[in-house]
Amino acid sequence: MSEPDPNSVTFHRWDEIHAEPLKGGITRKLITGDRLMIAHVHLQKGDDVPRHHHENEQLTYIISGALHFWFGANDERELVVRAGEVVVIPSNVPHRALALEDTLDCDIFNPPRKDWLTGSDDYLRR
User: Fold this and answer.
1) What pLDDT band is residue 37 in, cutting at 50, 70 and 90?
2) Taken in order 34, 82, 49, 24, is the CA torsion positive or negative?
3) What is the dihedral of CA 23, 24, 26, 32, to 10 degrees?
4) How far apart are CA 126 and CA 124, in angstroms?
5) Taking 80 as the threshold, does the pLDDT of residue 36 lie above it?
6) Chain center to CA of 39
7) Which of 124, 64, 50, 51 is nearest to 100 (CA)?
8) Which of 14, 24, 40, 117 has the most neighbouring CB atoms within 10 Å?
9) Distance, CA of 49 to chain centre
10) 92: left (phi > 0), else alpha (psi -120 to 50), else beta?
């Protein structure tokens, strides 16, 4: 087996990545590898992320602010996630969220979200 190529390493600065505008005051920045995606998602107080689900496993780390999450097809579970806290969302679990404050969250996905890369994520654009 050959050694991995050190020239395949990439470097990024969040402040140099274009913020993609979405619905309401939501914006996001993406960095993608072959098997992982990381995103900085900014939400303004009152912004909502409609119920959706995806095959991708998701970790959401709240850097600042707070998100109120509902999980399940009928909102069977509620959870408020605040700065310094992380929620792990398994594949295909329906979820939605509401920003309780201006919030910066860091989302990590495996595999990368194809709908986010292609712009076919209509639930974030209406």
Assistant:
1) very high
2) negative
3) 10
4) 6
5) yes
6) 6
7) 64
8) 40
9) 10
10) left
Pairing state between β 95-99 and 103-110 = unpaired
pLDDT in tens, 62-113: 999 999 999 999 999 999 999 999 999 999 999 999 999 999 999 999 999 9
Arithmetic mean of pLDDT over the chain: 97
DSSP 47: -
pLDDT of 41 higher than 90? yes
How would you classify the pairing of strands 27-32 and 86-89?
Answer: unpaired
pTM of structure: 0.94
Give the pair of three-digit tokens for residue 83: 């700065």
